[in-house]
Request: fold
Amino acid sequence: MEETSLKRKVVLTCAQPTGKLHLGNYIGAVRQWVELQESCECFFGIVDMHAITMPYVPADLRKNTYMCAAQYLACGLDPDKCSLFIQSNVIGHAELNWVLACLCPLGQLERMTQFKDKSRKLSAGGDVSIGSGLLFYPVLMAADILIYNADIVPVGEDQKQHLELARDLAVKFNNFYSPTFNVPEAYIPKTGARIMSLQNPEAKMSKSDKNALGSLYMIDSPDVLRKKIMSAVTDSESSVKFSPEKKGISNLISIMGAVSGKSVAEIENEFAGKQYGDFKKAVSDAVIAKFDPIRVKYEELMRDKAYLESVLKRGAEAAQRRADRTMSKVYRKAGFVDAVRGSK
Reply:
């Protein structure tokens, strides 16, 4: 999809407050959001209500929410160009979730890949009590999208199935009652590098990686970033070449390209005849140059909680105005009586 087609479109994308964001999050999501805010009406949600579908610690959730907001702002989200809000601060997400749940076949939820995967992991971990919120997670996600009547939803591969459910429910509501919701389109980010674990280049970079050296976090110190990159798994050869047989060095080339803007060919030419140690040092320098200003800005924002809260309050107010317009239509069409403001 051409970027020009997104002008004046409403964009909605949300992410759970997972604490520290890594390089893969930046390349695959946040960097795209910063670009979209220049041409679209953007709503970026921190979905804390989704976060409680899995076992969690309330104090950690609160801390992670602030951390997430501060990192987004440090990466370039501009409160004057977009609305950054916390899901639980906007009334209507849970209410629309219920209306949509009453239209959603149970079997469709039970077939969701993420529900099966996550419930299997919980069971394997000895936690046999799986909350129904995990099952209804995709309906709440549909409500997150439809309450803002979003035109465009940036999604990754693992969320396509959930967006399809949102599209199905929008059509079902429109057919059962009357046209109300836009049927949102997926926005597939520009092709970018698939960032893998530094210690296991067969697996994606992930916060859940048990090896702390596997992921590069945007708020890591320069020393930590350098240590992780210098200890990255490579192979027994020494040529800096991108190849399926050289997964470790190919991953480092992808990282170098992602933070420097250089092509694979440019990187290979620049480091022809040089050793892996030289290349790793250059990758370290490039990653630090990209992330250190973000880290410094993040730490500054985390010391100013009043400012963070003012940004989130402003974003929630803008989101609430749009959500209210949608919910007034939904409630009226569903047959609910508004005894406070009067039914129309």
Observations:
- The longest helix spans residues 305-334.
- Residues 3-192+305-334 form a domain with the Rossmann fold fold (CATH 3.40.50.620).
- Residues 30 and 72 are 7 Å apart (CA to CA).
- The chain has two domains: 3-192+305-334, 212-300.
